[in-house]
């Protein structure tokens, strides 16, 4: 049979009377009027019971540094928050490849607005230069437009002319002008040709003549009529002297297909 509901015969021991005999209750030990007293409770470790051993009474106090560390951290945070900002670093100088720098001035070749002008050399002294010149000429000839090829090995006057245009003394070849504007050297022409931009540069230029010049055979130079290509003239009074009508090779520009000098 189940036990009937009712009061349990088991009696619970009342500890209130025994606890009242003690000197103080746990609630009285840890009671405090405000949160400021917590620091005093943690900072000292005084014996709460008079029944401790004499050894514990003479034991040195344990110092708790928790609140000390908190105060130190707060003081550091306040110091950092009131610290003046560091001075701004100077801006770095613009490098030559900086996209924000001013663009280079446009270099133009007067009198060449309707054709391509190529400064090159036909000499094989420097193989890499010769290969670059031949490759650029081959690319430009493929568009079948009017090209003025100026060979520095045929006339040294082209070198001074190019130095005057670019404002440089040391130059590499080839150098290309399209429609009177400077394009660049072999690397620039190759890159423009690979991406298809070079075709846009030559649009609108007159087509090249399908035939070869009968006077010079396509070399753009003929022998000087005054010295017959010797670059020397003889007179009975003064002897030999240099011909002033031709270059150092005894050649003059072809009057049929070459443009006049600058």
Task: Please tell me about this protein's structure.
It holds the Pfam family GRXCR1-2_C. Residues 117-183 form the Glutaredoxin domain. Residues 16-27 have a biased composition (Low complexity). The chain contains nine helices and eight strands. The protein is an alpha+beta fold and 262 residues long. Among the domains are: 116-202, 3-Layer(aba) Sandwich (Glutaredoxin), CATH 3.40.30.10; 211-261, no CATH class. The strands form three sheets. It has a four-stranded mixed β-sheet with strand order 2-1-3-4. The protein is elongated, with a radius of gyration of 51 Å. Mean pLDDT is 76; it is low at 10-32 and 44-63.
CATH-assigned fold name of the domain at 116-202: Glutaredoxin
Number of helices: 9
Structural class: alpha+beta
Topology as a string of helices (H) and strands (E): HHHHHEHEHEEHHEEEE
Largest sheet: 4 strands, mixed
